[in-house]
Write a structure and sequence with these properties.
Helix content is 41%, strand content 23%. The protein is α/β, with parallel strands linked by helices. It has one domain: Rossmann fold, CATH 3.40.50. The protein has a seven-stranded mixed β-sheet with strand order 3-2-1-4-5-7-6. α6 packs antiparallel against α7.
């Protein structure tokens, strides 16, 4: 299984541990990948889970080399979503499956403060509605089988949004006063996200798709 934008590797390590599958994680951040390798070694999985530095829009893999692809809360951050979808389809073997868990949004219904740079940091401004995600995956040659809203994930979504906004504020080259202002702004954005969730303009969904073809090898 390939985990696209794997971060610190938590998901692919869990999959390898629970299913016995071999895992491969790809991420742009060498710093996160170093943590992922350490976590795999600590779990005695470094022989079965590998990590590569690479871009979701140019995966460092040959065609049809993985049985499954996972992408968790990352697709919304990819600038060129059609290319990313095509890359995930390209590396899947015929009969292989894609599992996509992502923020979903109706961009035209989002509060203006969420369609900003901060909104991109929080994984909101780049989110798309389920029908558009379906179209992106099907245009890439995949057959979408399931789209299921992840009811109950809203609290976790807000936690993730708030954590990203706070981190962006802490990393900024700012005075303490500016940081306090950024923190206050972050809380305003979290409140706007909460409002958008309540209005049904923002949420989280799970998608499952298959690459057509013969699954045997």
């Amino acid at each position: 299984m390939l985990d696209v934008a794997c971060g610190v590797g938590a998901s692919i390590i869990q999959v390898a541990r629970e299913t016995g599958a071999d895992g491969l994680g790809v991420d742009l951040s060498g710093e996160l990948l170093a943590k992922a390798r350490s976590a795999a070694a600590a779990g005695q999985l470094d022989g079965r889970v590998r990590f590569l530095e690479g871009d979701a829009e140019a995966l460092p893999l040959e065609d049809e080399t993985v049985d499954a692809v996972l992408s968790e809360c990352a697709f919304c951050t990819f600038p060129d979503k059609p290319t990313a979808a095509s890359e995930m389809a390209r590396v899947l073997r015929p009969g292989g499956r894609l599992a996509l868990a992502d923020v979903i949004a109706e961009p035209a219904r989002l509060p203006p403060e969420l369609v900003t740079v901060q909104g991109w940091v929080a994984c909101i401004a780049g989110a798309r509605p389920p029908d558009e995600l379906r179209a992106l995956l099907e245009d890439a040659g995949l057959h979408v089988e399931v789209i299921r809203p992840a009811d109950g994930a809203h609290a976790r979504l807000l936690d993730r949004v708030e954590a990203r906004l706070r981190l962006a504020g802490m990393l900024a080259d700012s005075t303490p006063e500016e940081l306090r202002g950024r923190a206050a702004r972050g809380l305003e954005l979290v409140a706007a996200a909460r409002e958008a969730i309540g209005a049904g303009a923002l949420g989280y969904a799970l998608l499952s798709a298959t690459k057509p073809g013969w699954a045997g090898r």
